[in-house]
GCS light chain (Parnassius mnemosyne), 337 residues
Amino acid sequence: MLKSASKVTINTGNVLNLIDIKKKAGQNVTEELSESIKLTLSEWGTQNGAPIQNGTINDDNHPRTSHNNSNYMVVSTSTAPREAVLNITRPHDDVQNKMAEEERKNLKIGVKIFINEDSTIALKECLENVFTALRTEFIENVILAYNPDILYKEEPRDDTNTSLRNTFPKVSPISLGSNVGRLPSTEMEADSEADARKCEAILPGIKVLWAVLEDYVKEGRVQQLGVADVGGGCLRKLHGWARVKPTIAQINLASCCVVPPSLHAFCRANDVQLLTHADPPDLLSLAAVKTLSDAGVGCNNLDWCARYQVHIKCRGVLALKGYVCKATLGNGIESKK
């Protein structure tokens, strides 16, 4: 019985082989992650002799969890002092089989890390979990999505904007449309001011995390680095400061309508690939509420989450896709840098 564990790590494995995910074509990122976590909890619970419905253990010998405790078994512990970590994986996952179908040189692994704290320990833990899940010695590219709570914790929830964000189509790579040239100068100036305010809030944290990623590049375990949701000015500052320059920049067009001219110009001049995405900035909290919290596990926010995708290079085919996430249960001890 889990009484002292403060953390849980969930590895969904290859979500492309989950029938329930396939049936729900067109679902947004939050729905995909939430459904994947629910199915992982259910499958793991059944395998361990405690049937789980909607992520909650429910039988005579395993009473339902409350918001302050959990009845999952501890299968391993982390090296952090006084921190018991429950690791949950899908027992019938096919990640290793998919990885073995092709030679490693024919595969390209891309990872996007969602994290809201500038914790070096958390970032390292996240990456090591991905390496363990894929059993690979190196990763082609890692994109950092750093969204500290300060950016949105006081903003009211806008269902209209949420719907737009979750349904906005992905385009890769992006080109600067002709509409940008017709933007009023006042609007461009406002965008620059907003970019400066956001950069002031997030750049210090990005630098802390980026230094960790640079060490992985130095060790040959990661080949390229990228960053999500920073404006042209912030990307310029990061690029000038970093030892390992960002080669990928992701932007959520649902939140800005057009590509900021300064961002597009900088990426073009510095050989930075500019891509779009449809990941909400509050993905960690949304996914937690839709899965762990609703299941009575006592979690309102994921500590971090990594999405890994493996493509077959010569064909551009997506071979597998999955998530590894970590959450704090109840009032567990925080792991800081």
About this structure: The longest strand covers residues 317-328.
